[in-house]
């Protein structure tokens, strides 16, 4: 197994072709020898049939002797005559006895002693025949003899069988040199046929081997090692390919390796970008969470300020109602002191002047109420934009408090002036009889003042309702802010999970070895990859910095 692993695919394929040739030669040799053996068996079958026929004939005469039909001499003569007439394919039968003397031979005299007869190899031929004939079925023996027709020594195959009753040995032989010639002729024919077939198979196999090697692009063991390296995460070993190779298995594997390097490199860069993005998102979430908490605190402060403003507006409305009551009381007092006003016409002029001042103050109060109404409207608008400019509520609240304070001061001045008017009316009540018309005008002015105080009271009520709506809006803003805080926390948790996943992805990608650092031939590729990575990293850094700056700018604007 170890030796087979060290052999290349090219050697294995050509070795297979060589084994085919060896197999064909073995088949040809085996077939030739089988054919030779078949011819020998055919010759042997003919000899055996001839000897068996002669043996049966001799046994029939033995039976006649035993039955008394013939004497032994008569029977042997008849047997010799009849057996001598038996032939097969040029083969004749000769007979010798146990003393190795010829009983009958077509070419030799009877009684010739053959005990010392040897073939050309020095073998005592008849002695060996006597040995192999001992079994009842007889036996075969191969020896070398001179062929008179061909004037050369040739091998002869002998078959001999014994007639035990008479101690005869019936033998025959045949030359087998022609079998060898036939064997070699068959070997030549089969060799030529096998050569033609082998050449055709060799051409086909050569074409197949070249196609297989071209399709593989190299030794499969090399491809196996590369695939094992890729499976183990090492993608930094390029394959040795032919410059014109564009369709082999190794070319496809190299394309897969290059694509994996590219994909994993892009995934690695994407992982780095995602990691940087998650860090920025996490930082932004933390900043957003802190700012959301600040926003929530500001809204709570705004709600508290609006509560104080509501109380102040309620007090302003109560003061307006009290001022209205005082105005009504002033009008009644002026009517009751009509007679006294006749005496204090000069004082009533002062009251008229004071009334004008009261009118100015009331106009001021009206202006303040109008501005307060505008600020309340502005506060409503600010409440609608609470998600972006929450700090504007504090400014509006301060302005409303200032206007409310001015309204309170104006109300105090009104009360002071009214007290002064009351005193002067009391002082001039003695002379009111002479100034009934003036008193009537004072009563009319008090009525107008009452109407103005009604308007102030109505405006204060509207202010109170508007501030209540602002309080509701601020409460809704606080709820939304709390929800935003929860969503920010969920986003932070999701970002943390994403960061963990990115870290795991980076760990998995780090398992792959994308580039080799030692070979100089791949330095340019590594430098290109590094430059690409640096460019992408720089782009990510600049993009991240720009996004961070934009985010900071938006937070500052908020």
Automatic annotation (TrEMBL):
Example GO BP: signal transduction
Keyword Ion transport in record: no
Record InterPro entries: Chemotax_Me-accpt_rcpt, MCP_chemotaxis, MCPsignal_dom, sCache_2
GO-annotated cellular components: plasma membrane
Polar residues biased stretches: 531-542
Region (Disordered): 522-558
Cellular localization per UniProt: Cell membrane
Family: Belongs to the methyl-accepting chemotaxis (MCP) protein family.
This protein's name: Uncharacterized protein
